[in-house]
Design goal:
heterodimer; B: 14 helices
């Protein structure tokens, strides 16, 4: 596959929400047996059939970049992480359904990832406040996934599921809630699987596949 | 009447401290997490509140505020409560939460946490035997026994921490130790990092495609399970799976490399920031302080060695002694007594503030405070010492000073060694291509 056909999707979220388990489930269709702390970034590849079942079907490799760390990291770690945010085609935000703060922190994650080309020094000028206009001209498809659904008691499920309204009011992203230790949530034909392939289909169907944030200060070529 | 007023003052200040501890817990320690068990927060705030009141009582002691008998009463009460919490409640809850996390023992967690607590108490008691703290006058469960044990643990920890801090602080602040980092170094490392990621991706793509073709051809890749499965897989292994394991090993090695590169890049960024910080006014100021502080640390280490070698224990209050020396040297007429009282009060205040800050960052709270009290006793002039001695009974204070010096020295020397090794290793890594 030529490098021009790269499709890069970031997986962002707080420490311990289950990004590595999720990526493993998406790419290998298996449950991750021994999850451990992600240092730096771990990548995995998912083979995706674009427009499956239609004559225009095409197979893509989707790279899922699972970036470790938390929003409150030292600025040196944030600057190092910033090198992974180049040329992103899609973002998956992951939060933990049992931990409210992780969904609140998703806003800061989106600022960190999407603000890259506005601030060339790599230092965030905003103080973390959520600015709705930033998302107005954002064209990267977004997906929000809530994990650890199995750890929420049946009676509280409804309340928890209606609580996660991040981005919903302005951007209306897709939203999936699942449990990464159980592959049946993403079984073929389930509504979650449909949402997932719809999300992945949005990426290559992107008008002229604009590369977002082609690096202002750093000109790195990695062909 | 005055007793009631004093008690109400004490109680209001305790409530204030409790609220402060609660807020600190929520804002700083648990900023990114959701609190599920409020018990932890309550215990933390209660311990914090009582510890702060103890320090408050010391200050009142020096200032002469409040009635002497009510002070004495509050001291005793405070000490009892803190010891109770420290020796009984906190270890029990720690054990309880540890046990709850282990799935196997979930049903009988109460029983197991009691067992854990009993083992803790046993070791805690045994701790006292090799040390010369047992006084035949008092019974088994007296306050002196408990304090002495808590004091030993606390003094050890404090000496360890201050030994490390005494060496680490100047190392961090002084720019002499900073390596020179340029932008090109960082860019080069980032290039390497991204190249490694690309290599990982291309290998994973091959693996994914291979797995897909295998799946489509009907060769499901089963992991060998059990003894016979392994024997079978040795003889009849599909060529596809052999390739996969080889590539998987290469991928593992590359992933390890990418982690190393990430950490090195983060390190370089941090160094670069420190260099920039040291060029600002604030940075220069801290650099200057760093030099002074390092001299102070060296002096402290030196004094600790002398104390041990010459078997001497600090008897005079250092502030008074310092003022005496200056007065004699400079020949200035100085009302020593008047000034020494105020200066020692300020010193005690500084020690308290820095202790509080240091303590709020470390874990072992209560022990730290009790042992701080023991050591503060050394810095205070004789007349203030009486009440503390009266409350805490006849503990062998000399022993504690000696013990502190030993541990402090050991900790400082080992952290010097450790930092030296780490410093040496880093520039060598950079030179490797």
């Amino acid at each position: 596959m030529a490098s021009l056909d790269r499709v890069k999707v970031l997986v962002l979220g707080d420490s311990g929400v289950g990004k590595s388990s999720l990526v493993h489930l998406l790419c290998q269709n298996q449950v991750l047996g021994n999850p451990s702390w992600t240092v730096g970034c771990s990548v995995d590849v998912r083979v995706h059939d674009y427009k499956e079942g239609t004559p225009e079907e095409k197979t893509y490799y989707i790279e899922l970049w699972d970036v470790g760390g938390s929003v409150g990291s030292a600025s040196s770690v944030k600057s190092t992480r910033a090198v992974f945010y180049n040329s992103v085609n899609g973002i998956i935000f992951v939060h933990d359904l049992t931990n409210k703060k992780s969904s609140q922190n998703l806003r800061r994650w989106s600022l960190e990832a999407l603000n890259r080309d506005l601030v060339p020094t790599g230092v965030l000028v905003t103080n973390g406040d959520y600015d709705q206009e930033q998302f107005a001209d954002n064209q990267i498809p977004l997906l929000v996934i809530g994990t650890k659904l199995d750890q929420i008691h049946e009676t509280k499920r409804h309340e928890v599921l209606t609580r996660t309204a991040f981005l919903a009011e302005d951007f209306n992203p897709e939203e999936i809630n699942l449990d990464c230790t159980n592959p049946r949530y993403l079984a073929a034909g389930s509504s979650n699987a449909v949402k997932l392939s719809r999300f992945f289909d949005k990426i290559p169907g992107f008008p002229d596949r604009k590369r977002f944030g082609a690096g202002t200060l750093k000109s790195l070529h990695y062909d | 009447m005055s007793f009631l007023i004093d008690s109400s003052i004490m109680i209001t200040s305790q409530i204030l401290f409790f609220g402060f501890g609660w807020l600190f817990f929520m804002r700083q320690l648990f900023k990114d997490y959701e609190i599920r068990q409020y018990v932890v927060q309550v215990i933390f705030s209660v311990t914090f509140a009582f510890s702060c009141t103890m320090f408050e009582l010391i200050i009142f002691e020096i200032l002469g505020v409040l009635n002497s008998s009510s002070r004495y009463f509050h001291w005793k009460m405070n000490l009892c409560v803190i010891l109770l919490i420290l020796v009984f409640m906190v270890p029990f809850y720690i054990g309880y939460f540890i046990v709850s996390n282990i799935r196997l023992l979930h049903k009988q967690r109460l029983l197991f946490s009691c067992l854990l607590w009993l083992t803790f108490m046993y070791f805690f008691w045994k701790l006292g035997d090799p040390f010369p703290i047992l006084s035949p006058k008092h019974g088994i469960l007296s306050i002196e026994q408990l304090i002495s044990r808590v004091g030993v643990i606390g003094v050890t920890l404090m000496a360890l921490l201050s030994g490390f801090g005494a060496v680490n602080c100047p190392y961090t602040y002084m720019s002499y130790f900073l390596r020179n980092v340029t932008d090109t170094d960082i860019l080069a490392l980032e290039r390497r990092l991204l190249q490694t990621m690309d290599m990982i991706i291309s290998k994973k793509k091959r693996m994914a495609m291979a797995r897909r073709t295998m799946f489509q051809k009907g060769e499901v890749h089963n992991k060998p399970s059990g003894f016979w499965g392994m024997i079978k897989s040795v003889t009849t292994s599909a060529s596809g799976s052999e390739n996969l394991t080889l590539i998987q090993q290469e991928v593992d090695a590359l992933e390890e490399l990418s982690r190393q590169l990430f950490l090195e890049t983060a390190d370089l960024y941090a160094t670069k920031e420190r260099i920039e910080y040291s060029k600002t006014f604030k940075g220069k100021y801290f650099n200057f302080l760093g030099y002074f502080f390092s001299i102070y640390c060296v002096w402290k280490i030196f004094m600790a060695t002398i104390n041990i070698v010459f078997d001497r224990v600090g008897k005079t209050d250092p502030v008074t002694r310092g003022i005496e020396i200056t007065v004699n040297y400079l020949g200035i007429q100085f009302d020593v007594k008047f000034w020494s009282q105020h200066i020692s009060f300020i010193l005690v205040g500084i020690i308290i503030v820095t202790s509080i800050r240091g303590l709020l960052i470390t874990l072992t709270k209560g022990m730290y405070f009790v042992s701080s009290v023991l050591l503060i006793r050394m810095s205070m002039p004789l007349e203030y010492r009486t009440i503390i001695t009266e409350v805490l009974g006849e503990l062998q204070f000399n022993f504690y000073h000696r013990w502190f010096d030993v541990i402090f020295l050991v900790s400082a020397l080992s952290s010097i060694l450790f930092l030296y090794l780490a410093h040496k290793q880093a520039p060598e890594k950079q030179m490797a291509p």
